[in-house]
Write a structure and sequence with these properties.
Elements: H1 2-8, H2 29-49, H3 60-76, H4 81-101, H5 104-134, H6 139-142
Amino acid sequence: DLTFKLWNKGFETQFISKAFVYHKRRSTWKQFFNQTFNFGAARPILNKMYPKTAKLTFWFPSLFIIGLLLLVLGILFNCKILVLFYSIYFILIFIDSLIKNRSFVVALLSIFATLVQFFGYGLGFLRSVFRLKVLNKNMEETFPKMFT
């Protein structure tokens, strides 16, 4: 939001490759889920406030969740193409993490972290879209904590 406000006022921003940014670490999976859920919930609001910033990629975690639901239905009806797709995706996450971190446990946790992040962001995003677009709710009334 700050960046978009600055751009709207005519300021320019730039990437500083040697800059350090310190983020508060989430020490539990629940805290991480809540953080990503709030990020996902905020994105449709930012898209509404700054339409030029909207991107298709913001939908990817939500599409991931919808795909997993379709995967479950596919298993029930003996359609296994999504099982293959998701299996390959999780194997690639595992291999990438294993190579980078040299730890089997961290590689397994990387898969879990991906699921937590995608479900958090995706569900927050879908909830926001539903409230703003389907229910046609006002941003400030629907998400009062974000506007205090």
